[in-house]
Amino acid sequence: MKCDLIVVGGGPGGSMAAKTAALAGLKVVMLEKRQEIGDPVRCAEGVRMMKPEPEWISSEVKGARIYAPDGKSIVMSEDKSGGEVGYVLERKVFDRGLAMQAAQAGATVLVKTRALGLLRKDNAICGVSCLRIGEPLQIEAPLIIGADGVESKVGRWAGIDTTLELQDIESCAQFLVHDTSIDDEYTEFFLGNSIAPSGYAWSFPKGNNLANIGLGIQGSRSKPGEAMRLLRQFMRTRFPNGKVVEMVVGGDPCSGPIDSAIADGVMLVGDAAHQTDPLTGGGILNAMQAGILAGEVAAKAIAAGNVRRSGLQEYEDRWRDDFGKVIARSFQLKEFFVKLTDNDLNQLIGSLAKEDITKMDLPGMLRVLFRLNPKLLWGLKSMII
Ligand code: FAD
C-alpha cells in the first residue's frame, strides 16, 4: 500500500488533518486502532464552537458556574467562559462525523489498524508498519502525522521528546450519570484540594438529567486508583442519588508548549503534541486547528518534495502563533493556581460576590481579582497588568 501521507489516530486532530490534506489533493490513509471511531469516550465533551452539526450536540449551556471549596459560587456567561463551555458534544457521533468528512474528502480510513512503528529507508522515514485486524501490513508514505493522543508513540519513534512530567499530566476519572439534581443549563466546576487536589471536578450536562461528572488531579499528587476514589467520594457528597451508566479513566496533558512538534518526515498534532490548554485540560479545538494546519503544510511539503524539518517548519511556526501563546500563558496560570490553598480559593471567589462578572472573560476577571486581592495574586502581576 502506498500513499502521500499517513495519519495515525482517528480523533479530532487526525480526522481534520486527513480531511484537509485529502481536500488539497494528497493521497491520505488514516489509521485508527479502535474498531469504532469515537468509542470509548475519554472526554467531558465540553466545547465552544461555531456552527456544530445538530447531531453532534447533546446539549447547549448558558454558561459556567464555578464553586469555591466552601460552596460559594460565581457564574460566567457562555461566550466568556473559554473553549470548553457552550455545547456538550456527543463525541461518539462527533468523532465519527469528522472521520466521515475525511473519508468524503478522499482519505482512506482504516479502523482496527494499529500503528506499530515507522519504516525507514536510507535513514529517512518511508512509512508505517501496522497490525490490521490481526494481520501485519506495511504502508509506504514519505510523511506521517502523529495524531495518536496522549499516549502517542509516533513522536517517540521519530525521536521527538514527548515525555510528560508527572505534575504536567492530569489523572482523570469520569462517570456518565443520571440524576434529577443535575443542572441542565450550566456547566459546573468544583474547586478544592479535598475534592480534586491541584485540579477540579466537573458536571457537564448532556440533557435529560444526564451529565458527564468527573475530576482530574495532578499526576504528582495521585496514586493508582486515586482519581476514581475521589470521584466516588465527590459523588457521595454532591450527587448521592446519581446512577452511573458509564465510566472512563484517562490522562490529559497539562504542560506548557512542547519543544518541537516536528521531525524529518513527521508532524504531531493534538494531545500527541501536548496541545491541550493546561489550565482547563480542554483540547478538542486545538487538536482540530492543529490538524488543519498540519494538513495544509503536508500538502505544501509534498508538492515541494521537502518533507524534512525545513519543509515542515511552517506548521511549527503557525500552531505556536495561533494558539501556542495561549498554552504558554495558561501554563503559567496553572502553575500559580495549583499552589493555592482552599482558603485562598474561598477568598478569591468570595471577593467577586459584589462584582458583576457575568460578561467578563478570563483576562478581565483576573484583572478584577488582582484589584481585590493584590497580595494573594502578586505573583501574577506581570501577566495581569
Ligand atoms: P484523541 O482524541 O485522543 O485521538 C487519538 C486517537 O488515536 C484515538 O482514537 C486512539 O485510539 C488513536 N490511536 C492511538 N494510538 C494509535 C496507534 N498506535 N495506531 C492507530 N491509532 C492510534 N477537551 C475538551 O476540549 N473539552 C472537554 O470537555 C474535555 N474533557 C476531557 C475529559 C477527560 C477525562 C480527558 C481525559 C480529556 C478531556 N479533554 C477535553 C481533552 C480531549 O479529549 C483531547 O484533547 C482530544 O480528544 C484530543 O484529540 P486528539 O485527536 O489529539 O486525540
Characterize this entry briefly.
31% of the residues lie in helices and 28% in strands.
What spatial order of strands do you see in the largest sheet?
6-5-14-15-16-13-17
Instruction: Kindly report the name of the CATH homologous superfamily of the largest domain.
Output: FAD/NAD(P)-binding domain
Q: What's the oligomerization state?
A: single chain
- Rg, please? 21 Å
CATH topology of the largest domain: FAD/NAD(P)-binding domain
N-end to C-end Cα span: 56 Å
The CATH class of the largest domain, by name, is Alpha Beta
What does this protein structure show overall?
The structure is a single chain. With 385 residues, the protein is an alpha/beta fold. The protein has 3 domains: 5-40 and 91-164 and 257-335, FAD/NAD(P)-binding domain, CATH 3.50.50.60; 46-86 and 166-253, D-Amino Acid Oxidase, Chain A, domain 2; 351-384, no CATH class. It is 31% helix and 28% strand. The protein contains 9 helices and 19 strands. It has a 7-stranded mixed sheet, covered by helices on one side. It has a 6-stranded mixed sheet with strand order 8-2-1-12-19-18, with helices on one face. Strands 3-7-4 form a 3-stranded antiparallel sheet. Strand 10 and strand 11 (135-140) form a beta hairpin. The longest helix is centred in the last third of the chain and has 29 residues, at 309-337. The radius of gyration is 21 Å and the shape is globular. The protein starts with a strand and ends with a helix. The model has no long low-confidence stretch (mean pLDDT 94).
